[in-house]
Structures are given as C-alpha cells and as structure tokens.
Amino acid sequence: MLAQSVRTALAAIGANKMRAFLTMLGIIIGVTALVVLVSLVSSATRAVTDEISSLGNDLLSVTIRDDKGKPLKSADLAQIAQDSTSISLIAPVSTSSATAKQGTSTYSLTLTGTTNAYFWIMGSELAEGRFLLDADLKNNTSVLVLSYETADEIYGRTDVVGLELALDGVKYLIIGVLAEEEGLMTSMGDNYTAYVPYTVLERATSAASGGGASGMSGAGGGASSGASGITSFYAAAKEADNIDLAEAELTASLLGLLKGDEDAFSIRNNNSLSETMASVTDTFALLLGAIAGISLLVGGIGIMNIMLVSVTERTREIGIRKAVGAKRLAITLQFLIEALVICLIGCALGIVFSGIILGVVNLTVGADSSTTYSFSPEVVIVAVGFSTFIGVAFGLYPANKAARMHPIDALRFE
Amino acid sequence: MLQLVDVYKIYHVGDEEVRALDGVSLAVGAGEFLGIVGPSGSGKSTLMHILGCLDTADFGTYYLDGRPVEFYSESQLATVRNEQIGFVFQSFNLIGHMTIAENVELPLLYRGTKASERRELVHEALSQVGLWERRSHRPNSVSGGQLQRAAIARAIVTRPSLLLGDEPTGNLDSRTGHEIMELFCELNARGRTIVLITHDQSIAKRTNRVVHIRDGKVVA
Ligand SMILES: Nc1ncnc2c1ncn2[C@@H]1O[C@H](COP(=O)(O)OP(=O)(O)OP(=O)(O)O)[C@@H](O)[C@H]1O
Ligand SMILES: [Mg+2]
What CA–CA distances, in Å, run from B162 to B82, B195, B208? Predict the structure, then answer.
C-alpha cells in the first residue's frame, strides 16, 4: 500500500507540475539557505579552530602576579616538570622591547627571553642555524634567534647566521633563523621578534632598572629586587588529551610554591580558547540555521495550503475511494505521502542547488584562501530530517481533513 | 440476505425536518433482483446509501447477512463496502486522472490483493463487461455506456455478493441503458443479489420484484 501511495502521490504531483514546483520552491529555498549557510559557517569555523589548535592545544600559559617575596627560579620550573606526570616541557618567557640597528636603519623588536624548550613547545622549525641551547643560558652568551619575518625585514634575506646585530647598543651573535610560519594568526600584525637566552634578557632588564648601582646587583645579592624571578612561562602537556590533568598538576605545584594563594597566578589553557571560539561559531551557525528554519517553516505553510486545495479539489475522488473501501488510514497516508514527496523532492533539489552554490563559492572566494567550503554531512541530514518533519507536520492536517470526510458528502461534492 | 427494520433517516435543513426515510422495512433474499422505483426526492438514494453501508440509519436496524450493521466501526464498514458490496452510481464516479484499468483495480488495492492476482481479476472484470480493449483509456476518452461498464467492472472486481445500482441507466440513452441492464441481468443470473433504483418502467420490468417508495415510505 505504501508503494502504491507513493505512485499515486507522484501521479498527482505530475498532473500539476507547475503548482507542485511553486510549492516546492519554499522548501528548495529553505533547504538551500540551511545547507549553504551552515556549511559556510562550519567550514570557516573548522578553519579557525584548526588554526587555534595549530598554536598548540597542549599549551598552558602561566602568569605569576605575586611571588610572595620568593622569586621563581629556573630550578623551580624544572622541579615542577619533574614532579608532574603530564607536563613534558616548561619554558620561562619574559618579554621586553629593543631597538636594533643595522646600517642606518633602526628597527623596533620584541625581545623574548626564553630557553630551548620554548621552541619545542611552540613546534618551531628552523630555516637557518640552531635554537638557543642550555649552554647559552648557563654562560649568558649574547646570542639570538630571529623569526623569519624579522630577518627578512632587517636584512632582506635569511642566511644571516654568524652576523652580529646590535640591540640597544649591545652586540648579539645571530645563531638561528626560524622557518616562515603560515596561517591566519601569524599574518595578523607585523610583530618582529628576536629570541635571546632568558638569563641574558633578565640581566639586561635588571641592569637597566638597577641604574647606577648595576655593579652591586649581581649574583651575590640573593634578595635583590632586580632579579625578579620568572613571571611567566609556558608549559606543554605530554598529550593534548592530558591538558586538563596538566593544568591541575601545575595548579597544585604553584599553590605549593605560592603559599596557597590562588590569586597569585593565573593559568590560561589554549583549549578553552578554541572551546570559546567553537561555541561562538556554534551560536552563529544556530542563528543562521534558525533563519533557514523559518524559511522552511514558511515553505511548510505553502505546502499545507496547496494540500488543502488539493484535498478540496479531489473531494469527489476521496468519496469514490471511500466508497470502494478505503479506510481512513489509507486516505491519510495518501495525502501525507503526497506532502512528504513534495517536501523531499524540494529537499533533494535544494541540496543539489546548495552543492552548486558551494562549488561556485569555492571557485571564487575559496580560490585564494586556504579554506574549502564543503557540505557538512550533519546539515544534510538535518535538512532531510527537517523536510520530513515539515512534510508530516504540515501534511497531517490536510490529510486528516481528507480522511475524516463522510463518503456521501464527499461524493455529493460539486 | 438484507433486512431493514423500521429504518429512519432524518435530515435537518434549517428548522425544517426532512424525513428522507420514514420507517422503511424491507427484506431482500440472496440471488434476488430487486427494483426500487419512486418519484424524485422520495428517498431512494438515501435508502441505497444505507444498503451500501455508505451511510448509516438514524433509527432502526439494517441486517446484512444477519448481522446488524449499526455496531460496525467506520473501518469495519469500509471493509464491508470493499468485500461484500459493489456500488454503481448514476454519474459513474470514475477517477479522471486514472485509466479505466486503474479505476477497476482500486478496490483491490484497498484490499491488499497481490499484484499478479489483481491483474487477473481486473482482466476478468473488464472482459465480463466487454471493455478489456479500452483498459488503458482515461474516463474522458470513452462513451457514457463504456464509463458505466467500467464502473460495473469496478463494482464486481472483488466478486461481491451484493450489487447496488443507483439509477445506473439514468445518464444513458435508452438503447445503452438496456445494454447495461442486460449486463445486470447476466450478473444476477450468475447468482449475485442486485438492488437497482430506476425511474424507467421498462428497466424496472426486467427485475424480479419492484418496491415503490414515496416520501420515505415503502408504498407497495
Ligand atoms: N445531505 C442532505 N441534507 C439534507 N437533505 C437531504 C440530504 N440528502 C438528501 N436529502 C433529502 O432527502 C430526501 C431524499 O433524497 P434522495 O436523494 O434519497 O432522493 P431520491 O429518491 O434519490 O431522488 P432522485 O430520484 O432525485 O435521485 C430529499 O428530499 C433530499 O432533499
Ligand atoms: Mg437519487
């Protein structure tokens, strides 16, 4: 009986092609809007979240606000890493700015004082030379690693290992140049960075703040305010899945070191950044989905309207069918399936249409960006589900109206 | 086979009460060919609809094969219409967008008959009314007599024991009408119980027995 109902429905639709198509148009537009908008948003979202996780979703960034008079030392960091089961590397980070002089030009650089671990945590790669090594830190050697963009900006080339660069009048030996980075985030802002041994930067800044009494504030004075200790560092979890455990362990260690004061430090988790990002774009997708849903709803009302017309037009047919023994269920099914078939044909056309639109978007907008806009399979399932729902929801009333007709009244209908 | 006991059907049009059937009692035996005659508006069609389970009586009881129909549910009535009764209307009542064969097949679809068996039964019914050659025509491309033949084929395709005709010759010229009547007589000869409404005395003469109705009452 179901196959028969589908055949009858197709025949009825075929008998009124133009009308059926106009009715479908609402569903076609609704489905197209739904699939295209949600696919665009989720493709863009995927691009952004991929970008964020490429920054390291195994990364914790820690800031110490109050060291309780006991500055954090490298040894403390090493101890934390050793105590923890889930943290692989910790790298102290301090930043400062410096002016580089090359020939007659000057450049303003961001100096990052750190250790070898930093490059591993960041997943940096080298274009030339080497990273900072432990020996550089131990010996306070004035060496630096340049980012690709920085070398390119200052020298116009990157094979600059072995040259000396003067930063605020102090000469540094260039030991490495990082590989060029690609991606959305790195292209934002033209920040020129040079990496120097943590100890070297610490000494340089304390010398500057120490002013005239620079000779006194050396290794001798333990409680010197100049040696302010580590105020920020990065920690990497052994596995990205372990990031929450790593954060918990790190929190415990820091609470121990900082006399249990939760407010003395803060830990930022990159995971939460991508989660926030994802929830923002999810909301966005939901909003667009709701708009598309409303247009589908309007399409559904169109279907209900045309089905009511169809039921009225075919009142006599309904009477005849009942006279020869059609039960209510059979009549209900006939009209319900007709509504459903209209919806699903509309849905199929909408999906095909969306595929064409997404293809065109990829050829035009997508051609010069790394993002490809693809169907998200979920939205296709949602579209089919929604169309089915609309067909049933808006077909039910007309179908019921047909099924409830009294055979004699229906046969008498002119 | 059929028995009506004091059946009433009352319509209310505004404040007015129309007694379409006003206490009708009637019995039809198996294999009988009954003619019903009466003036227009006397309640013939109303009576026929009740006999055909298309409508139900307001008061009184209709026994079909000894069982009172008033206790049947709507779906049971549909089954009775499908399996036990064939109905032929004055205005043919074929579905316009379906072929003659599809129209004839319709009752079998609602019965759930298998496709192969359906083909066989449709062939048998259409052959019996001499319309097999026209099976793939649509109703708008055949004559009135052929339409009524198709309607009769649809009525007998399920091999019902009871055949009802509400002025089946009313829309046909007298020659075609007599051809159709011939068909009914043939079907009756094969053992079907037939109840036929007619205006035409010459048609009524060919039945076994004639019942006259006037103002919703059986008069003779
Ligand atoms: N649905 C209805 N509502 C109101 N009155 C009705 C209805 N159906 C029938 N009637 C009335 O019932 C009476 C009997 O009608 P019915 O159709 O049975 O007459 P009939 O004998 O078949 O007439 P005809 O020979 O013209 O077909 C008529 O007076 C008619 O007006
Ligand atoms: Mg009548």
Answer: 11, 8, 15
